[in-house]
Structures are given as structure tokens and as C-alpha cells.
Amino acid sequence: MTDASKTNLLGLTKEGMETFFADMGAKAFHGRNVLKWIHKHGVADFDAMTDIPQKLRDTLKAQAEITPPRIVLAQPASDGTIKWVLELADGQHIETVYIPEEGRSTICVSSQVGCALDCSFCSTAQQGFNRNLSAAEIIGQVWLAAREIGHPPTNVVMMGMGEPLANFDNVVPAMDLMQEDLAYMISKARVTLSTSGVVPALRRLREVSDVSLAVSLHAPDNALRDQLVPINRKYPLEELIPACVDYVKHDRRRKITWEYVMLDGVNDSIAHAKALIRLLQGVPSKVNLIPFNPFPGTDYKTSPADRIDAFRWRLMRAGIITVTRKTRGDDIDAACGQLVGKVLDRSRRHLKKIPIVQEHRP
Ligand code: SAH
Fold first, then answer.
1. Which residue CA neighbors atom 24 of ligand 1 most closely?
2. Residue 270 DSSP class
């Protein structure tokens, strides 16, 4: 449980920690050491921080806490993916996914409880928007995952529940901590922010961060994108594409990853592929085709595999690097667009599908 009178140190960046310690009248280097204890060693108990003077530890105990979200459910999928359902201090639930692959371990992190953006093919959208996560709740997912898997992840993708750019002020410090040498030390190329295209926030991000950019494109023209990703009505392609180009243009090796969900009969024809090629002409691009992951109540269907292949080859022939994203963890509803924070909870009986594989006891 968090205590409102105490500062949760989990969400503080190096600079935030130094300021917090200075305000307590303590030396900044103690703040940096505490940061290391928390994120490098996974320690949440001040008494285990042996190089911090006892008196300072006592002051810390009175004024601060290190409180991550609580794992209420750990669901391993048959492919090694694990989905954790996390409970926040106010009783709300979010989901975090661990995706192991040869030589890398990726954590898919949520940025909001629910989402306000209402993309028609996404199940998180169906639950509506509850609130933003704090920086502590965002980095807390990485902290917990590192503890559970026994090492820091090699990659983080801000591709869980929520629109990260709609929670800019908390997402940016959390991403700083992912990259911080005294914390997880993940390079900027291995931290990826995925956005549906909140253009003004994307332009702001360029000023303060340099993480990899993935954009939920899903359609090659405004008419179709207006339907699938409604924020397109506010920030149409002619504003989105230049903002993305500006984001990567300082580094000629950088590319924008365009996410493109493959919806049967909606956006998956060769004509769509050709329109996409025209749209991305001259734009440093990688295209990530995501087979649609169905969820209860949706009318959309996944494109047949041969159509996804034909679409991919059309793009490849035009010189665009295109990969089909492997669906991971779909047997536990952990795949893209399936995260809704479902949990066994008597007050939420209406959520009927509760596939519990393994209860987690910390
Ligand atoms: N809100 C951010 C982060 C979500 S990332 C964004 O929109 O980019 C997850 C990716 O999965 C996004 O590209 C999203 O559009 C896509 N997605 C959502 N629902 C999906 C579904 N049911 N099947 C496949 N991909 C989906």
C-alpha cells in the first residue's frame, strides 16, 4: 500500500533523486546510491541499503517509500511469454507482458489504465479510459519484470495499455530511467515508444528524448485511417508523417517503424499496399505487419496468411523493409491489442473471461 504522505522513490529519475536528497539536507551521491539499490539491485527495503548511513535510512523511512504495483496474476503462455496482471494502489488493474526471444528479453509496458483513443480494432479501447499511470507505476512494471525474470530486460516497448504520448509527463521520466546508467542501462535504440499519432506531443518528445519510434499507421489514406484510428481526424497523415520524419531526421541510420494491423478485407489488399508504398516514398521506414488479434465482441477478422505474405512481398519489392510480427502469448490474451487488465475480482464479475493459469504468490 502506498502512503500519500510519502514520496515513492521508484518514479524518481537521477535528477529527481538528487533534488529529493538535497531537499532532505542529504548529499546527492546518497541519492544516486539509493537509485542504484532500487533499480540495479531490485531492493525495496531501506535497511538493505548498507552503504546508506543509518540516520539517513531512518529519515528515508519516515519520508519515502519504494512501492511497486502488486502482481496479482502471472500467466505463462505456451510460447514462454508471461502476462502479469498488476494491481495499483487504488485497486485498478493493468497488464505487463514479458516476451523472451533468442538473445533478447522484451517487456511490454502499459502507460495508462485503459485508453481514450478508441481505435476500432483494439480491445483496450473497449474498456474506456480510467487514468494515467504515474512514473513509479510505469517504471515499476520494469522493476517487477526484472525481479521476476532475474535480470534487466534488453528491450522495452511502450506498447501495452494506453497511449503513451497522452501521458507525456510520466512516460518521459520512466523512459529516462530505462536508459539511465545507474538503473537499467537500456540503449535508446532498445526503448520503443509506440503512438497512435498525437502529433504535438510527438514534436515535444523530440526535444527531450531520443527513443525509437513506432507509429500505429494501419491505413494508407485518411478516409480509412479516420475509421480505424480516430485521432487521425485531428492529426491527419499530412501532419503525422512530417512530424515522424522530423523525429528521426537527425540520424540517417534511424527508421520509423510503421505498425500495420492486418484486417481481413479492410486494409489488406494489393491496392492498399501500393498506396502505402506511395505514402512512405522517401520516408525512412520499416513496416511491421501485425496479424489482427481477435477479442470477444469484435467483428474484425485476421487476414489470411497468404494475403499477409502477398502484402509483405509487395512492400519488400518496393524496397521497404517489412516484417510480420509474430503473435506472442495469444493463448493468454497477451498479444497486441488484447490487454484489458482482466482479473479475478468479485467487484468485476461482468468480466466473464478470466483465464487463470497460475496464481502468483510473492
Ligand atoms: N496506444 C499506442 C500503444 C499500443 S501499441 C499505439 O496505438 O501505438 C500496440 C500496437 O498493437 C498498436 O500498433 C496497436 O494499434 C496494435 N493493436 C491494437 N489492437 C490490436 C489487435 N486487436 N490486433 C493487433 N494489433 C493491435
1. 292
2. H
